[in-house]
């Protein structure tokens, strides 16, 4: 009989599969792709995923090692998910084993059985009487029995304390056989008659048109861009579409950006539906994640809501995919498998033959381009749903005006007026810490990071200098490390400094700082938000965390301290990002009765992009930005891939990229590919980071197909290059940061 060979994807960066002898007893008929197999790998044991079984191998028979154990009797991965992972690995030129590791819940990768957790359920025993005479002198047991009797389906062990059920009493009741315990899967919730737990809002005509367009494509693939200004009721459109999908017996996948997990969004879903909702975000532990994943796979969750990686959640009956805030950069993973969850969601929708809705007030230029090209249906919501007026914009020229902690005199006046009128003010500044640099006034020393080509930020509260690029931190020096004198001055303004200054300027009003430092403690965010919701006049100062998803109905003035970074930057996406930030921050203002005002401090008050944005709105800006991208041959009119390298010694990464570049040049000729430019290698914009020297090579192509043809041959060769050993390198397909 021919031997059975297992071809496995292993958690390794190498872009190849690994052959093993099948373990004893395994038969070809029992094997399915996606099954997990424990195998020896070097001196370790790892868990691989079966890709295919074969009777032959190119590995010589005496080198083939036997697999140790099959972990599954049934594949835990439905074929659609396996296919999506194959596609992903191919498209991003990433090892399949590593791709599967990113896509699967941690516990599955570690070999945990692919079964939902068993739980103990407490019931009143058959025939037990609440007035059992043995309980006359045991009031606590009697009480417990009575409580339990109110729950016909039993009570899960983990919920006992929530219902004030005493464990000891239950144990005593168990001895008396008045209660029983059953071990089973967590109960699939019984649904009441209707999916709605709360009535729906009557839609306005634009919302209705959007819902109807999407609804009419149920049952097949079609992509929609739902472009609706902040507060236009996009979420209401999602909710009504979800209800309609549920009514047809389908499941819905909703992706949300990382930071948007304000309890506000989730609460709206939970309040609206009488449905089983599985949550997959960063605060969910590994066990909960696996349970949610299994529930979705087995059709026991109706709605799956999660961040980036939730894209890989299998669904038994997929009906609709929603990507909220589709422009958000957190959909792109910036390490390991550098996938874009929005882009993969489109691939998945096509594969599952379901409609997909990409929603945003500030759509990415990529998505707008796709809409213009007719690939996506474009649905616009132009009015704020609650009837609130859009904010007014004011470009405040600060050339040669004195700034006090970044705040000009006219802005200070506007803040005073707003607070005196009993309203709230939001001050936006995309830089945390006290000041971006510490400078010695006597000798010119600056607080450079010892490990990066970057400056360390002054953090006043913790009295530290911290590098925001590598995490290095040290005590803030009292004397200049170079000349020993004491005139060290913080240069520039971060949120801490703005907060400190605003407290002095407006002593009667509370100042609330919202950034990663002030909200890192659990619950800190909730406390801040409940203060804001109370509605008394106050100042909020913060970073882009303020731009996301939250409603601040009492904020009527938004101040953007510095818009210039986005207009100067070398990164071609900087202006798009700046415009999105400004519009998103502005969208927080005046959502209720009072109209909002947005003041943008800038040295470039006449910059065409800024003028367009503030006078004609985001879509006019986007058209202008798109035509600039077209003229410059940049995405979405070109396709990019970025090969990055970093090494301990200067020059090493560039040497490797040089070899990679000549290899690519050969291949272009050999494969007769055209329309691909190789730009570089060049040192990265920040050449040294965390003690490593970095360089990059950019591939720019006018069509996707030849670029991918090149990469599929090029990457396996790069793995063989001798220079690659000392260099940590990675490929980023469709990079969003060219750093
Ligand atoms: P978006 O998601 O576009 O920012 P939301 O869905 O959060 O907008 O809606 C903004 C506000 O308008 C919410 O308070 C919401 O309850 C309300 N709203 C949405 N649609 C309607 C409607 N059709 N009628 C009345 N109020 C609505
Ligand atoms: Zn000095
Ligand atoms: Zn650093």
Explain how this protein is built:
With 739 residues, this protein is α/β, with parallel strands linked by helices. The protein has five domains: 5-109, GIY-YIG endonuclease; 118-185; 205-386, Rossmann fold (3-Layer(aba) Sandwich); 389-435 and 492-629, P-loop containing nucleotide triphosphate hydrolases (Rossmann fold, 3-Layer(aba) Sandwich), CATH 3.40.50; 639-733, Alpha-Beta Plaits. The protein is 30% helix and 23% strand. It has a seven-stranded parallel sheet with strand order 11-12-10-13-14-9-15, with helices on both faces. It has a six-stranded parallel sheet with strand order 16-26-25-17-24-23, with helices on both faces. Strands 2-1-4-3-5 form a five-stranded antiparallel sheet. One zinc ion (ZN) binds next to loops. Residues 472-632 form the Helicase C-terminal domain. InterPro entries: DEAD/DEAH_box_helicase_dom (IPR011545), Helicase_ATP-bd (IPR014001), Helicase_C-like (IPR001650), P-loop_NTPase (IPR027417), PriA (IPR005259), PriA_3primeBD (IPR041222), PriA_3primeBD_sf (IPR042115), PriA_C (IPR041236). Keywords: ATP-binding, DNA replication, DNA-binding, Helicase, Hydrolase, Isomerase, Metal-binding, Nucleotide-binding, Primosome, Zinc. One of its GO terms (cellular component) is primosome complex.
């Amino acid at each position: 009989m021919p031997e059975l060979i297992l071809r496995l994807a292993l958690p390794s960066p190498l872009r190849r599969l690994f052959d093993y002898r099948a373990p004893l007893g395994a038969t070809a008929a029992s094997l399915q792709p996606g099954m997990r197999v424990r195998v020896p790998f070097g001196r370790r044991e790892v868990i691989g995923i079966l890709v295919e079984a074969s009777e032959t191998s190119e590995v010589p028979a005496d080198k083939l090692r036997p697999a140790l154990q099959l972990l599954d009797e049934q594949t835990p991965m439905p074929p659609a998910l396996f296919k999506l992972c194959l596609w992903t690995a191919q498209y991003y030129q990433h090892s399949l084993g590593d791709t599967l590791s990113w896509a699967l819940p941690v516990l599955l990768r570690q070999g945990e059985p692919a079964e939902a957790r068993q739980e103990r359920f407490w019931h009143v025993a058959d025939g037990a009487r609440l007035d059992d005479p043995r309980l006359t002198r045991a009031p606590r047991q009697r009480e417990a029995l009575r409580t339990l009797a109110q729950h016909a389906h039993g009570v899960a062990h983990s919920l006992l304390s929530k219902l004030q059920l005493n464990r000891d009493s239950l144990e005593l009741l168990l001895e008396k056989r008045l209660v029983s315990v059953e071990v089973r899967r967590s109960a699939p919730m019984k649904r009441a008659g209707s999916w709605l737990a709360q009535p729906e809002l009557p839609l306005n005509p634009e919302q209705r048109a959007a819902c109807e367009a999407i609804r009419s494509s149920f049952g097949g693939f079609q992509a929609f861009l739902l472009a609706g200004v902040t507060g236009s009721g996009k979420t209401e459109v999602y909710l009504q579409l979800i209800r309609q999908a549920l009514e047809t017996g389908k499941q819905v996948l909703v992706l949300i950006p990382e930071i948007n997990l304000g309890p506000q969004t989730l609460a709206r879903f939970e309040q609206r539906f009488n449905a089983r909702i599985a949550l997959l975000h960063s605060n969910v532990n590994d066990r909960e994640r696996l349970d949610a994943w299994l529930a979705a796979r087995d059709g026991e969750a109706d709605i799956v809501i999660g961040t980036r990686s939730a894209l890989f959640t299998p669904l038994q009956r997929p009906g609709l995919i929603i990507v909220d805030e589709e422009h958000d950069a957190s959909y792109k993973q910036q390490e390991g498998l550098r996938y874009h969850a929005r882009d993969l969601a489109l691939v998945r929708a096509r594969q599952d033959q379901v409609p997909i809705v990409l929603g945003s007030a500030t759509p990415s230029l990529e998505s707008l381009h796709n809409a213009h090209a007719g690939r996506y249906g474009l649905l616009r919501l132009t009015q704020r749903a609650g009837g609130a007026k859009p904010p007014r914009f004011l470009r405040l020229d600060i050339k040669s005006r004195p700034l006090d902690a970044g705040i000009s005199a006219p802005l200070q006046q506007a803040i005073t007026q707003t607070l005196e009128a009993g309203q709230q003010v939001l001050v936006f500044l995309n830089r945390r810490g006290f000041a971006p640099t510490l400078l010695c006034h006597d000798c010119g020393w600056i607080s450079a990071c010892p490990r990066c080509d970057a400056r360390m930020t002054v953090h006043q509260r913790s009295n530290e200098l911290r590098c925001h690029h590598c995490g290095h931190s040290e005590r803030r020096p009292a004397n200049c490390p170079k000349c020993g004198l004491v005139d060290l001055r913080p240069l520039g303004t971060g949120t801490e400094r703005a907060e400190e200054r605003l407290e002095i300027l407006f002593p009667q009003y509370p100042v609330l700082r919202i950034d990663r430092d002030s909200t890192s403690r659990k619950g800190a965010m909730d406390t801040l938000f409940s203060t804001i919701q109370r509605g008394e006049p106050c100042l909020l100062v913060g970073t882009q965390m303020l731009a996301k998803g939250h409603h601040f109905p009492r904020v009527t003035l938004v101040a953007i301290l510095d818009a210039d970074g986005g207009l100067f930057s070398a990164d071609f996406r900087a202006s798009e990002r700046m415009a999105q930030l400004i519009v998103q921050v502005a969208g927080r203002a005046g959502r209720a009765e009072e109209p909002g005002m947005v003041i943008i401090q800038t040295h470039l008050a006449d910059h065409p992009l800024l003028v367009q944005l503030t006078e004609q709105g985001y879509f006019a800006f986007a058209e202008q930005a798109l035509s600039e991208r077209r003229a410059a041959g940049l995405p979405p009119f070109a396709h990019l891939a970025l090969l990055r390298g970093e090494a301990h010694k200067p020059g090493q990464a560039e040497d490797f990229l040089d070899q990679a570049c000549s290899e690519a040049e050969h291949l272009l000729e050999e494969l007769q590919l055209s329309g691909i430019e190789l730009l570089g290698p060049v040192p990265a914009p920040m050449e040294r980071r965390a003690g490593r020297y970095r360089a990059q090579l950019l591939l720019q192509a006018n069509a996707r197909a030849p670029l991918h043809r090149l990469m599929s041959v090029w990457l396996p060769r790069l793995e063989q290059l001798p220079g690659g050993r000392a260099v940590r390198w990675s490929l980023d397909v469709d990079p969003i940061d060219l750093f």
